[in-house]
């Protein structure tokens, strides 16, 4: 290529752009990249929702079992889930299908989150981000499973607060909204430590800043655990609290290690001949 070729202006409308080897992008490029990642994530969720459509009957029966089986034959109180509007079955079908799509497509949208973050990382840090992507998917699914195991206990506790002689006739939009919020909250809570390490690798927060907030985070974990384990059952609460606290501790350790590695790299560059 001659000098004249290099200085020749790029035609208007050309898609060719100089790529920054360090992954830096302008604000416009960031917004374009974010839009692309959101579209891919939404497409993955919608494709997963197709599977949710076929799993609808099984999912309703599984999630409604703690209510319908409450008390057994010895409990004379009526417990049921009753539709009170013509369009509620369709609304429930859409909600549960999208929830299944969210779970099934979790590798897709979690990867898109990390793929959006990764251009801002150094090459040596990207291999660690790949490991965090692999960790986030089982953690999210593990949080969903944890919420599923806690659901019967939660229903049993809330029904135990009923005054004598009352029944539990629950609208499906109320009950399934409670169930889905519980599932998604537990799933996201398990992924937050991974995201915390990611924003540390981006340089947004330091390990010391994360460590300085440990009291508030542990208190928040305790509150979340108490809400997810109603009835004040200490054993159930600790079963939720311990893994979340350990994950937060691991995240702090990784953030501090990354800070030390970044500091050593910067000091090496400041040395003569670095």
> What structural class do the secondary elements suggest?
mainly alpha
Total number of helices: 10
> What is the makeup of the main sheet?
2 strands, parallel
Give the amount of beta strand, in percent.
under 5%
Count of individual domains: 1
Rg: 25 Å
Distance between the termini: 33 Å
| Shape estimate | flat
Average of the residue pLDDT scores: 78
Run of helices and strands: HHHEHHHEHHHH
User: How many strand units?
Assistant: 2
State the oligomer. single chain
Helix percent reads over 70%
Q: Which strand order spans the largest sheet, edge to edge or round the barrel?
A: 1-2
- Any low-confidence stretches, pLDDT <50, length ≥5? 1-8, 13-19
How would you describe this protein?
With 274 residues, the chain is mainly alpha-helical. The chain has one domain. Helix content is 73%, strand content 2%. It has ten helices and two strands; from the N terminus they run αααβαααβαααα. Strands 1-2 form a two-stranded parallel sheet. α7 packs parallel to α10. The longest helix is centred in the middle third of the chain and has 38 residues. It is flat.
């Amino acid at each position: 290529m001659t000098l004249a070729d290099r200085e020749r202006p790029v035609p208007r409308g050309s898609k060719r752009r100089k790529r920054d080897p360090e992954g830096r992008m302008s604000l416009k490029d960031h917004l374009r990249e974010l839009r692309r990642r959101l579209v891919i994530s939404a497409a993955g969720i919608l494709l997963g929702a197709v599977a949710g459509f076929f799993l609808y009957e099984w999912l309703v029966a599984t999630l409604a079992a703690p209510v319908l089986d409450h008390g057994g034959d010895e409990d004379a109180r009526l417990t049921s889930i009753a539709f009170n509007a013509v369009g509620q079955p369709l609304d429930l079908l859409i909600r549960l299908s999208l929830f299944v799509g969210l779970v099934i497509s979790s590798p897709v949208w979690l990867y898109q989150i990390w793929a959006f973050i990764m251009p801002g990382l150094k090459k040596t840090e990207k291999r660690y981000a790949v490991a965090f992507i692999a960790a986030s998917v089982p953690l999210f699914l593990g949080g969903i499973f944890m919420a599923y195991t806690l659901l019967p206990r939660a229903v049993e506790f809330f029904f135990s607060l009923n005054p004598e002689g009352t029944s539990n006739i629950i609208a499906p939009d109320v009950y399934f909204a409670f169930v889905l919020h519980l599932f998604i909250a537990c799933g996201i809570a398990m992924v937050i430590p991974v995201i915390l390490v990611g924003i540390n690798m981006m340089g947004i927060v330091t390990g010391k800043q994360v460590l300085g907030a440990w009291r508030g985070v542990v208190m928040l974990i305790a509150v979340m655990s108490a809400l997810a384990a109603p009835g004040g059952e200490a054993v159930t609460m600790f079963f939720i609290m311990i893994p979340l606290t350990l994950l937060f501790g691991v995240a702090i350790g990784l953030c501090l290690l990354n800070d030390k590695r970044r500091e050593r790299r910067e000091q090496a560059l400041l040395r003569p001949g670095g």
